[in-house]
Design brief:
Helices cover about 75% and strands about 0% of the residues.
């Protein structure tokens, strides 16, 4: 876990830096500065909330990668203490029972269940991360939303005339 913490922060720092530089050049930030807002207020009201959404999405999507990495280290014997219940350690402990050779019953479930648990957990984390991404995506809210639902649309009164045959 220490290895993931020591080396995993660089991706987050790069993302935050890129988002802050991008947001700082947007029109609403420039307008807030033009009105006379302080830098601290601009950061608190405009930059931080918009940069935070990307950070939350990246963190939720990286959970699956960390779980697979920890399981791989546990399988290789480099993970946590072997007495700790961990998916990689479970897979490593049952690996030798699968290599028996001809004859004898092979306990297939000993590796299938921990492997399936890893798969389902990582898939669930990616689906949750995708849902968070969709919920926090500012581009999905706006004029296109009104077109799909039909709320707030104005109908052109002249468009119905041709279909009723009222005009000569």
């Amino acid at each position: 876990m220490l290895a993931f913490s020591l080396f995993g922060w660089a991706g987050y720092a790069r993302l935050v830096r890129g988002e802050v530089l991008s947001i700082a050049e947007r029109d609403y930030v420039l307008a807030a500065r033009a009105v006379g807002a302080r830098d601290r207020g601009v950061i608190r009201r405009h930059v931080a909330p918009n940069a935070l959404s990307s950070l939350v999405v990246l963190a939720s999507l990286n959970v699956g990668s960390v779980v697979i990495g920890v399981a791989a280290l546990g399988f290789l014997g480099l993970g946590m203490d072997p007495s700790t219940a961990e998916w990689g350690t479970m897979l490593d402990a049952t690996r030798e029972t699968l290599i028996r050779g001809p004859g004898g019953a092979i306990p297939w479930w000993a590796t299938v269940y921990p492997g399936a648990a890893i798969f389902v957990f990582v898939l669930a984390m990616n689906v949750i991360g995708d849902g968070i991404n969709d919920a926090l995506d500012a581009r999905s809210v706006g004029p296109a939303r009104g077109r799909a639902g039909g709320h707030g649309e104005r109908r052109d009164a002249g468009a119905d005339r041709g279909s009723r045959g009222d005009e000569p």
